[in-house]
Amino acid sequence: MTADDEQSPARLLRIALAQCSPALGDVERNLALHLRLIEQARSQQADLVVFPELSLTGYFVRDMTPDVALEAGGPQIARLLQAAGPTALVCGFVEEAARARFFNSVLFAEGGRVVHVHRKVYLPTYGLFDEQRYFAAGDRIQAFDSARFGRIGMLICEDFWHLSAAAIMQAEEVDILLCVSNSPARGVDGPKVRTAETYENLCRAYAQLLGAVVILVNRVGFEDGLCFWGGSMVVGPDGQIIAQAPFLDESLTLAEFDPLELRRARITTPLARDERLLTTIEELVRIKRQRYS
Amino acid sequence: MMHSQQIVNLTINAELVAEILRRFIRNEIRRAGFSRAVLGLSGGLDSSTVALLAAEALGPENVLAVVMPYKTSSPASLRDAQLVIAQTGVRSIEISITEQIDAYFARFPDASQLRLANKCARERMTILYDQSAAFEGLVLGTSNKSELLLGYGTQYGDLASAINPVGDLYKTQLRQLAAYLGVPEPILQKPPSGDLWVGQTDEGELGFTYAEVDRLLYLMVDRRWRRAELIEVGFAAEFVDRVATLIRRNHYKRRMPVIAKLSHRTVDRDFRYARDWGT
Questions:
Q1: Residue B208 distance to chain A (closest CA, Å)
Q2: Is the per-residue pLDDT at A186 higher than 90?
Q3: What is the DSSP string of B115-183?
C-alpha cells in the first residue's frame, strides 16, 4: 500500500462485515443496532466495520425519505463515530443536503471524523426499484486516501453494476474497492440466488482487474416480501474469496487480509501499471464528440 | 425452430425456495406483532404446501388450519386435508359453510354456479378472518402465480390474505416445492381442483393445462416476449390472445379499489409507504 509496507511486515487488517437487517424507517432502532455491532466489532479488534447500504434507515423508505434523512455532520452520526473510537466505520444513510436534496449515501469515518461521503450515482428506477423518485443522484465517483487502509473507493449497489464506475476506480488506483448494497433475491432456479451469483462474479472480476481488495456488504432480512440475501464477502486481489458471511442470516463476519498481498498481486499481474489512461480518455472524448455533437 | 418446451425451464431450487419462504413467513408475521398463522386448508396442493411451510416456519402449534367444506365438497378433499393435519401436527378446526350458504341462496334459487362458487369463497374468507382474530394469527394466502395472473380466484375470497408465501411461484413450480416439502402423495397426484362443484377441475374449466399455460405466462410475463415471438415457438395465436385477455381483464382483482384523486396526496397513488413501514 505504501512504501512503509515494504520495509516492515504489515499487520493484518481486520474487517468486520456487519451484515444486519435494519428496521424500515426507524432510525433510533437502527442506531441502537449499529452501536451494538460496533461494540462487537471493537471487542474483536476490528480495524474497520462496514454496514450495508441505507443501514440507518432500511431500503424502501419511499415517502419517509425526508423524515429519516440525516446530515453527515449531525448528532446521530457523531454518536456512531464516538462509539467506533479507533475502529474505522462505513455506514449507509439518507443524506439531507442543501435545498432539500436527499441522497442515498455511504460514509467512511476514521479517527473520529467523516473522511468521505459517496452519493449513489446510479439510482435504479426499473423493475422493483423506484429510487429516482425519492433520491437525487450523486455526480461524483471519487476515491480518497485513508490513514490506515490506503486508497479507498466506495460504490453503492447499482453503481457496482456499471463498468464505468469500476473503471474510474481502477484509474483511481484504489487499494480497497468497497461496495455496500441492499440486493434483493431474484432468480431461484440455480444452486444459489441469481443476484448473489452476479455479485460474486463482479466482486471477483473487479478484485482481479483492479488488483485491489473488494469488500461487499449486503444486508439480510425482508421488506414487503423482498428477501435480501446477505452473502457479504471480502475478495483478495487474486480474485479468491477471503471470507464470506452466510446467506440470509444476520452476522458479524470477520475477515483478515495481509496488505502485502496487494504488492504481490501487482507484481504478478501489473494491470494498473500498464493501463493506458490517456488512450481511454481520448477514446471517451472521441465518443462524446460523435454522440453529443 | 425451437419449441417452447425446449426454451422454458421452470425448474426451481426447491430447497432454496423453501428456506426463503419459511423465513419470509416468520419475518412478516413477527414484524406485524404476531407469532401465529391461520389458513384455509382445502386438501389441495397449494394450501397443503403453505400448511407445511407454515408449520416448519412457526411450529405446528402456531398454525391453525381451517377446513371449510360445503355440502358438495368432495370427501377425498377432506381426507387429504386430514392427511396434512396429521402429518404436520398443526391445529385444526372444521367449519361447514353449508348452512349459511344454503340459507342465503334459498332466496336466490336461480343463482349461477359462479355466484355460488364466489359466495363460498367469500364465506370462507370471513370465517378465516374471524378465526384469525380468535387465534391471534395472520391469514396466509395460498394463491399461486398462475392463478393470480389468470385471475382464477375470487376477489375478497380466496385471493384475500395478510401475506402470501406462494404468490410468485407458478403452479408447475409450486408442485416441485410441494414434492420437496413432502406433501402427501395423493395430493401431489390428483388433478388441481377448486372443488367448486362435483367433478370440477381447474384445467377442465380453464381449457388448458397448467404445464402449457405456465410456459406461456413465463415467456409473456417474466421474459416479456411479444405475441409474434410466442407464436413462433409453437403457441397457438388464440391461446396467446386468450391468456393475454385473461391477464388484462382480471387485473382489477390484483389491485386496491380505484380512488378518485382530488388532493395532492392520495392513498395508494402518491401516498407511498411500504407495508412494512416502521418495522
A1: 25
A2: yes
A3: HHHHHHHHHHHHHHHHHHHHHTEEEBP---HHHHHHT-S-TTTTT--SB-TTTTS-HHHHHHHHHHHT-
Quick check: B16 and A188 CB within 8 A?
yes
Q: Which of B11, B13, B168, B224 to mutate to test the interface with A (most CBs of A within 10 A)?
A: B13
Q: Is the ipTM of this complex over 0.90?
A: yes
A227 interfacial to chain B (CB closer than 8 Å) = yes
- A140-171 residue pLDDT tens: 999 999 999 999 999 999 999 999 999 999 99
Query: What pTM was computed for the model?
Result: 0.94
Nearest neighbour of B272 by CB, restricted to A62, A188, A225: A62
Q: Which helix (H) or strand (E) holds A89?
A: strand A88-97
Are residues A62 and B274, on separate chains, in Cβ contact within 8 Å? yes
User: For the stretch A129-142, what's the b/e string if a residue is b when 16 or more beta carbons lie within 10 angstroms of its beta carbon?
Assistant: eebeebbbebeebe
* Cβ separation A225–B24 shorter than 8 A: yes
Whose CA is closest to A59, among A135, A119, A118, A139?
A135
End-to-end, the C-alpha distance of chain A in Å comes to 42
Amino acid identity at A61: V
Instruction: Look over chain B and give the mean of its residue pLDDT values, rounded to a whole number.
Output: 96
Of all helices (H) and strands (E), which one includes residue B203?
A: helix B202-206
From A190, which residue of chain B is nearest by alpha-carbon distance? B13
